[in-house]
Amino acid sequence: MTISRERPFTVVVAAGLDSSTVSPEARFLGGRGSVGEREIERLIGRGRGFGAGPLPRFLDHARTSTSSVGLLVINEVQEEGEGLAPPFDQRLEGARILDTSPGRIPAEGLQAAVRDLTGVDPLDPDARGMLRFLVVGCHTEERILALSVFLRRVFRCDDVAVAAHLVGSVTKEAHLAVLRHTLPGLGVQVLLDMDETAAFAGLPLDFPGQVPGACAIEPAEVEEELGSDPKRIVELLCMHWTRTHLRPLAGGFSGSLLFLAEGWKDNARTEPMVLKVDAFDQMRRELAGYYQVKDFLGKHVPALGYPVTKGEWIGVGMELAAMEGAPQTEQDTYEDIHNDGDLQHFLLRLDKTLDLLVKRLYSNTIERDHVVPYRDFGLHVEQQANWLEENAGVILGYLEEEEVEDIGVNLKQLLRIFRVVTANQAGLEGDTCLAHGDLNFANVICDEGDNVWFIDWTHCGRAAIELDFAKMENDAKFVMMKSLGLEDFPRLRAFEEYLVNQRVPAAVEAIPETLSFVRWDLRFRMMLETVRRIRKACFSLKQDEDWVVYRVALLRYATHTLSFDARRGRGECSVAQLGHALIGCDQLAFDLVSDLFHLRIRTETAAGYPTRQVITIDEAPWVLD
Predict the structure, then answer these.
(1) Phi/psi of residue 231, each to 5°?
(2) Calpha distance 282→478 (Å, rounded)
(3) Which of 481, 468, 456 is nearest to 581 (CA)?
């Protein structure tokens, strides 16, 4: 037989086929080494089909193959005379069997057996590329892992693989963790279906004993858009399912992929989970965020599985505890409001969300600290003004094309005021806490029982306590209110002017007569009730009445929203939504420039210096003596 690097010899290495591991007899099933009845049936077969399972049939085919495939069996001998379990004891004639003591790899014997079988010494540096190894058997996290690492590191073989359908373990979590995380991280290939296994081994693709392949991904358009590496990650994360239906949970404008995965095992439905696939650095930060808040939020953040890496991507599965069906994001709930009943349902979920965050996370980690609002929120750099000028100019151009009358925004004046306020590098005593950092409503998941989970903790860290609340208000007004039209601008300006002057807005029934339209327009009631609850929750944590930091945070998010332009393919906001956000920026900038935070004298004064009273220019008496 001629072996070359173009046509390497495949050595199938089987371990854990002894009676104490895979025998279905009752006297062995109760032993500590048994993989258990379920795994034995999956690998070997059950009832009249015992011996017709994928593992014995594959080994039969490897043993009798006339191609460049050989079979080595490592038998751990517990007691003298102990051999392989049925059906392997009668069906591996001609295979090379290496006896060894428990927990040991027969290194010299394995080297000799490979040399005898292939004519190639696996430790010879010139042999690299001439051999490949396929490891099968039990237990995945013990013998299979140890053998794979040995072949990869000691024999220095680049082509070492494990067939997921041909290995098993009594501990499902450990079995899946090794296949999804540990082996790929060590450079060992994990083969997810029998066609892939046969191709790796160089066996005919129509060999008998086929089992279901990798988890099928639905719908087809989602599978096509994934790309090869993210698709492989999804297949590994869902390898315990037969098929999965993926529903996107977010727009993915950052490049990340976020799905709600509903799974099936054959025709039986399984518990859903959330899948997140993202770039390496981004996902590392997200995992670190989860670990920071898990102790505070408990079951209200998903339970994370082991991360799976492929190329430049990392994916992770997130299981939602106590799921009661029909999961959806709070953004879905908000956007599905069509009547007062829907609004009350959303507000119920919002109240629960805010209560959990306030009691479990924010109040639990709150600290008094020095806050420099414009610098802390990144508004102090000149590029922010440049982006504002660019985005606002585009939006005003859209409005001109739509022949919309003046919405009351003078861009040149807005930019001048924006530069004045954002140049303020002064600080003040404020409150900080452990914050989510990107608390949009798409990152809050609810089920039919109104249980709540928080996801996507990539930007988690200590920040001003106002940050998350301002983000939620911003998205409720500008990002998720998709029913707004261009004809709404006069009412939107009056609405924003009211909100920027009220720390906590009044309830609908107490709204000023100038805003009477809020009482009969469901869209404005949605925004008012949402903003009112968010601000009440935020300011319940504050130790003073000052709310300048909150308004600065609102300005930060409103200016960012101007770039969420659907026409330019940058987000989901229509022209009406972008115009609303621009009105919000304008109102906030002019309100902040007249705030005491900007008017106060910051220089040191002599002791006993009279207290200065700041008054507005409208109240100053214009008297000339």
Answers:
(1) -65, -45
(2) 26
(3) 481
Cis peptide before 125 (omega within 30 of 0): no
| Threshold 0.85, pTM exceeds | no
Question: 3-state SS string over 266-301?
Answer: CCEECCCEEEEEEEHHHHHHHHHHHHHHHHHHHHHC
Cβ–Cβ under 8 Å, residues 597 and 550: no
How high is the pLDDT of residue 48? 87
Question: Tokens 């008496």 correspond to what residue?
Answer: 621
- R_g (Cα) of the chain, nearest Å: 32
Contact of 431 with 464, CB cutoff 8 Å: yes
Q: In what side-by-side order are the strands of the sheet with 444-446?
A: 328-329, 444-446, 452-454
Residue 77 has pLDDT above 60, yes or no: yes
End-to-end CA, the chain: 115
Which residue bears the tokens 């939006």? 395
Over range 601-625, report the average pLDDT: 48
Spatial contact of 438 and 456, defined as CB atoms under 8 Å apart: yes
Written as six digits, the tokens of 495 are 């609405």
Residue showing tokens 């890496």: 309
pLDDT tens digits, one per residue of 198-216 = 889 888 766 555 556 788 9
Q: Going by C-beta distance under 8 Å and a sequence separation of 6 or more, which residues neighbour residue 381? A: none
